[in-house]
């Protein structure tokens, strides 16, 4: 693989010795100090099998106090650390680059409290998103975020990446729904910001620093989050559009006509659909096999079945008459709704199965978004399968380039072009996945130098020795020289 950033191990970090291992065993007990090769191989490898570290140690704390003791010790010994949740991150942020100690959060998986009146959930960071979704479902509530990786990703990882996902268009980002956090700093200090209040203007709202900081400023140990009530009228439609302009107009119409019941607006191009149909088992095209260029998944969620259905049907008839959609199907039951969703959520997995994949997660003005996909196709010709899909409702394109294997020539055709294009259109080079290792050095395409310098000062203040997730997020020159 040619994609791993070429970075040098920071020589100020120590290497593990047997005293360190004994110390950790003293804190965590034998069982939760893992040196097993097989488990380390898994922890050293990211979801795409693109980034690989060589850590010799994985620690599994069961409490905030244990996390605190781990970090306090690592800080005093100059041992670098990678916080790891479900390891579903897509930017090489969740695995070690060299021999960093992995702090795995999966044993901190308890729900602490749930308030049925306010809908406020407080839980430990290692709770798997899908388990929280199921827990809340039983209480008549939902999580305000959902993503294809729900079966493995953890709420602490979601918060640390500020994950967006499939319902952001309705419920907003985690900066709005997360009400509080408990975080352990690099020196082991525990910051209790675990508020459960919707409103609290007492000074700087520091939890926001940790939302989206990708484990570079602290380890998130507990999360308090506002969850919406579960509404029972859910409809999912899978639609075909002839051109990108129609998708765009459909979005504008959907926002106006479906308004408050709109809960997702996702799109994929025919290349993405073909990949899913060819690489995932049991997937069927919900529409007759005519070639359409684009597909849109619309979900509505509301409280009145008859009303909501009528509203959606009227919207679709109107869109069909206006030529915005060329075909479409509304799910007739929950199984069909899941099948429609599976097509959209299955795109990353289908791409994985198809070979090597270069992933770009961009915020762009909706009008311009697909121009980039077209331009990339022209640039790469037949040498690659260029795929566009994503959260159209949020202006978030997932541009993926699929090739048989990674090679420097393809990479040189994609980058820096893709970043320059995004920057020229005042977009973001990371809409929702973060910077990790992959884009740490690319931050300047989306942030001015003065902002990056302030970020580096904050990092220096909170983690003076730079032990937390080194080589990630901030440019390497700043990270290692300051
Ligand atoms: P990890 O991958 O383990 O870690 C991610 C980052 O967070 C790393 O930098 C890590 O160091 C840090 N971290 C993890 N836990 C903690 C903690 N407790 N404290 C401090 N730092 C921590 N992302 C989206 O935004 N939207 C999507 O729709 C989406 N869909 C996806 C679909 C698939 C199939 C896959 C594989 C990934 C998808 N992702 C998506 C990316 C990824 O799932 C998210 O970034 C997710 O939030 C990561 O959670 P995780 O627990 O797996 O974290
Ligand atoms: C999605 O929306 C995820 O499916 C993954 O954010 C996107 O793999 C990708 O590029
Ligand atoms: Zn996404």
TrEMBL record:
<keyword id="KW-0560">Oxidoreductase</keyword>
<keyword id="KW-0285">Flavoprotein</keyword>
<dbReference type="GO" id="GO:0005739">
    <property type="term" value="C:mitochondrion"/>
</dbReference>
<dbReference type="GO" id="GO:0071949">
    <property type="term" value="F:FAD binding"/>
</dbReference>
<feature type="domain" description="FAD-binding PCMH-type">
    <location>
        <begin position="51"/>
        <end position="230"/>
    </location>
</feature>
<keyword id="KW-0274">FAD</keyword>
<dbReference type="GO" id="GO:0051990">
    <property type="term" value="F:(R)-2-hydroxyglutarate dehydrogenase activity"/>
</dbReference>
<protein>
    <recommendedName>
        <fullName>D-2-hydroxyglutarate dehydrogenase</fullName>
        <ecNumber>1.1.99.39</ecNumber>
    </recommendedName>
</protein>
<comment type="similarity">
    <text>Belongs to the FAD-binding oxidoreductase/transferase type 4 family.</text>
</comment>
């Amino acid at each position: 693989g040619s994609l791993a950033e070429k970075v040098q191990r920071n020589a100020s970090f120590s290497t593990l010795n047997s005293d360190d291992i004994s110390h950790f065993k003293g804190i965590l007990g034998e069982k939760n100090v893992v040196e097993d090769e097989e488990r380390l191989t898994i922890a050293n490898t990211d979801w795409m099998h693109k980034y690989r570290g060589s850590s010799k140690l994985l620690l599994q704390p069961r409490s905030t106090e244990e996390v605190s003791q781990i970090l306090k010790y690592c800080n005093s010994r100059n041992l670098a650390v990678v916080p790891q949740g479900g390891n579903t991150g897509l930017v090489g942020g969740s695995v070690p680059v060299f021999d960093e100690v992995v702090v795995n959060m999966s044993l901190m998986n308890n729900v602490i409290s749930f308030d049925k009146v306010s809908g406020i959930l407080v839980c430990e960071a290692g709770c798997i998103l899908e388990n929280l979704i199921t827990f809340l479902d039983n209480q008549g509530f939902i999580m305000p975020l959902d993503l294809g990786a729900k079966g493995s990703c953890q709420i602490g990882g979601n918060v640390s990446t500020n994950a967006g996902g499939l319902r952001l268009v309705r419920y907003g980002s985690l900066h709005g729904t997360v009400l509080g956090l408990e975080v352990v700093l690099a020196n082991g200090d525990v910051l209790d910001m675990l508020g459960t209040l919707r409103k609290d203007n007492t000074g700087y709202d520091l939890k926001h620093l940790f939302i989206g900081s990708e484990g570079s400023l602290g380890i998130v140990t507990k999360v308090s989050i506002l969850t919406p009530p579960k509404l029972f009228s859910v409809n999912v439609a899978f639609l075909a559009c002839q051109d990108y302009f129609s998708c765009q107009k459909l979005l504008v119409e959907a926002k106006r006509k479906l308004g408050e019941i709109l809960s997702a607006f996702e799109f994929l191009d025919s290349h993405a659909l073909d990949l899913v149909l060819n690489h995932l088992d049991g997937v069927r095209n919900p529409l007759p096999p005519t070639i359409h260029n684009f597909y849109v998944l619309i979900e509505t969620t509301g409280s009145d079945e008859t009303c909501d259905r009528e509203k959606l049907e009227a919207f679709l008839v109107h869109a069909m008459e206006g030529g915005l959609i060329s075909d479409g199907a509304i799910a007739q039951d929950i199984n069909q709704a899941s099948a429609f969703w599976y097509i959209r959520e299955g795109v990353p997995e289908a791409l994985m199965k198809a070979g090597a994949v270069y992933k770009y997660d961009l915020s762009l003005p909706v009008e311009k978004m697909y121009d980039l996909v077209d331009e990339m196709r022209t640039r790469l010709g037949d040498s690659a399968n260029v795929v566009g899909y994503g959260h159209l409702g949020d202006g978030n394109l997932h541009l993926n380039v699929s090739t048989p294997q990674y090679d420097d020539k393809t990479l040189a055709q994609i980058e820096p072009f893709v970043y320059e294009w995004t920057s020229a259109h005042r977009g973001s080079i990371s809409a929702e996945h973060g910077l990790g290792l992959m884009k740490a050095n690319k931050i300047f395409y989306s942030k001015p130098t003065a902002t990056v310098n302030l970020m580096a000062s904050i990092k220096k203040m909170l983690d003076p020795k730079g032990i937390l997730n080194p080589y990630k997020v901030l440019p390497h020159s700043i990270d290692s020289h300051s």
